[in-house]
Amino acid sequence: MTEVCVYGAGSIGCYVGGRLQAGGARVTFVGRERLAGEIRAAGLHLTDYLGADLSVKPADIRFATEPSAAAAADLVLVTVKSAGTDEAGRELAQVAKSRAVVISFQNGLSNADVLRRHLTRQTVLTGMVPFNVVNRGQGRFHQGSEGALEADAHEKLAPFLPLFTQAGLPLTTCNNMREVLWAKLLLNLNNAINALSDIPLKAELSQRAYRRCLALAQREGLALLDAAGIKPAKLTPLPPHWIPRLIGTPDWIFRLLANRMLAIDPLARSSMWEDLQAGRKTEIDWINGEVVKLAQSLGRRAPVNEKLIALIRAAEQGGRRRWAGAELLAECARPEKAELQGRI
Q1: CB within 8 Å of 325: residues ≥ 6 apart
Q2: In the predicted model, is pLDDT for residue 262 greater than 70?
């Protein structure tokens, strides 16, 4: 029987791995003791915004805290935070089967490349999880938004695709994952804004001032992508370049035109908000930081994303964590205006 390992089982890992196990796959979870104890006691209860309601009993769950638990896996799903990718790669290199297929289901652009530097004998693929997962505690994980899993097209992945289909999480394969990751990253620029708003995603996206912050950050990223000759994939009904126009519209127009964007669990928040609340380092460098890196490679700047990074880093150090929409918009608009004046 095919062995699957979820390496770095947090919210995304527990949800995806739990759905795979509920669908009949044999899954081992590797994560931290805090979550291990909780899930060993409560099991997994998995729900989604479409009404799915699945459970895995505690006695049926294999949740380990040591890398060696990944040794038998034919398929490894890496879901650690981006800051932990290098360590995960080093650990897996010591235990993973040489024929194992490894998928990076992480935020950011280059985590699969980091894994490949360590996993030279294994097949390492880039993956993407588009949806939000809410950790409701006691082993309860809820998919709060839509989207299908994606990964690099590769012949060695084909035997595992039925596992995802049986789990109700079909895995789409494609040959342009770089463009897919950039498209997702543009959407994820909202993670910092949501974290700084300190309110649920649906409430935040319902307020124009916060959406205008996102529009500024996205326009900045899109301009840089255009300059670099990179065309982000189309992950939503609208092309990426149209999204800032839509989210910048007045609230009543946005509600009328963007019902799908607001089809989010009312309690869902960004993973960056969760990291701030838990006192963990956020993934800001692997999201907004990628826009700044792209700007630097072009000899340019990304002042809006630089400002969001600065605000998140201040929050990580105990600084302000709750910004009203108008206040945050003023902070985001200030550096952009300064940059425009500097070009005149």
Answers
A1: 197, 207, 208, 209, 210, 213
A2: no
Q: CB of 152 within 8 A of CB of 174?
A: yes
Residues comprising the chain, all counted: 344
**What count of other Cβ atoms lies within 10 Å of the Cβ of residue 256?**
10
Q: Which are the contacts of 191, defined by CB distance < 8 A and separation ≥ 6?
A: 270, 271, 272, 273, 283, 287
**Amino acid 341: pLDDT:** 47
Q: Which residues of 158-171 are buried (b: 16+ CB within 10 A; e: fewer)?
A: eebeebbeebebeb
Amino acid at position 166, single letter: Q
Q: Is 103 helix (H, G, I), strand (E, B) or coil?
A: strand
- d(CA 278, CA 257) in angstroms, rounded, equals 35
CB 43 within 8 A of CB 61: yes
Structure tokens at 288: 């907004």
Query: What local confidence, expressed as pLDDT, does residue 336 receive?
Result: 58
Global pTM value: 0.92
Count of other CB atoms within 10 angstroms of residue 156: 14
- The three-class DSSP label of residue 12 is helix
